[in-house]
Amino acid sequence: MLSVVPRAISVRAPSKVNLHLAVGDLRPDGYHELTTVFQALSLSDQVDLVPAPALTVRVRGEGARDVPTDRRNLVWKAATRLAHRAGREPLVEISIDKGIPVAGGMAGGSADAAAALLGLNALWQLDLSRDELAEFALELGSDVPFAMHGGTALGTGRGEKLLPVLARDTFHWVLAFGKGGLSTPDVFRELDRLRGQGQPPKLGDPEKLMHALAAGDPAQLAPLLGNDLQAAAISLKPELRRTLRAGITAGALAGIVSGSGPTCAFLCADADAAVEVSTELSGAGVCRSVRVAYGPVSGARVIDIEPIV
Ligand code: ATP
């Protein structure tokens, strides 16, 4: 509980990559049954919250033009629902500084929603526990609880039932942002279509991958990375095949499509290798832009509080 009344609050929330994303059958509620291992990455968004006469959302940074600033934005939903629960009006200006690519398969919207929940809990002095916030998080989207949780975690159900996974040391990644985004529902639909034609084969369980994480060995982890959505993302954006090949040629240990894509994530041997891979990939002309990142990092966290003086 904060001892001062905050005047403004800044929260940072991580992106994610799915090291293992096994997509099961379509459930009656329209969601697919997932088994996934998430890792939270240092590539992040910052969300600033300041009391204001009305709810407003502003967005700048990576892909800002493609992000709605009205009720369609997940932070808008987070603010109105939390305010309703607290019996107050959502009188806050929310400014999002995006580092996470929009519709990139790295759960940027979910990161912003988690950041908004955490920040408003502090700004409005609601004193909700992390568990209570996690329940709210799930109402906003399947990936929001993980953005709150961070680290490395096994997700089941819609991906929202989380168990921490031991990951020794830090893993180093290069991220290649695609030209344009991919809609997550479209990618799931494409997977259903491909499976209707009898392909591609389904991923197994992530047991070996979890051992490699516990060992902290990127070379052991690399061949175990897998994503059932990758074939569907490539089917919708065939140029991703070239991007994935280019990352390996540049020296990455392995490359996968991140979540529903089109961001490609390349696991590298260490921090120096990641810088080399990123430099070479930038020059290869196979993606819009390239970033270096590491994980695991923590979930959404308050980075600055401006107290009332
Ligand atoms: P997923 O969590 O399904 O992997 P993603 O990472 O592919 O999602 P997001 O960047 O979260 O994609 O955005 C998906 C869509 O959600 C965007 O096209 C945008 O219209 C909408 N959206 C709503 N709120 C936000 C937000 N705060 N940041 C980015 N996109 C948002």
Molecular structure report:
The protein folds into 2 domains: 6-164 and 297-307, Ribosomal Protein S5, domain 2; 171-295, GHMP kinase, C-terminal domain (Alpha-Beta Plaits, 2-Layer Sandwich), CATH 3.30.70. It is 33% helix and 31% strand. The chain contains 10 helices and 12 strands. It has helices at residues 74-86, 108-123, 130-140, 144-149, 184-196, 207-215, 218-221, 230-236, 240-249, 271-283; strands at 6-26, 32-51, 56-61, 92-98, 152-157, 161-164, 171-177, 226-227, 254-257, 264-268, 289-295, 301-307. Strands 1, 2, 3, 4, 5, 6, 8 and 12 form an 8-stranded mixed beta sheet that branches. Strands 9-10-7-11 form a 4-stranded antiparallel beta sheet, with helices on one face. The radius of gyration is 19 Å and the shape is globular. The protein starts with 5 loop residues before the first strand and ends with a strand. The model has no long low-confidence stretch (mean pLDDT 94). The chain binds adenosine-5'-triphosphate. Adenosine-5'-triphosphate (ATP) binds at residues 66-68, 72-75, 96, 102-110, 112, 143, 181, 184, 259-260. It holds the Pfam family GHMP_kinases_N.
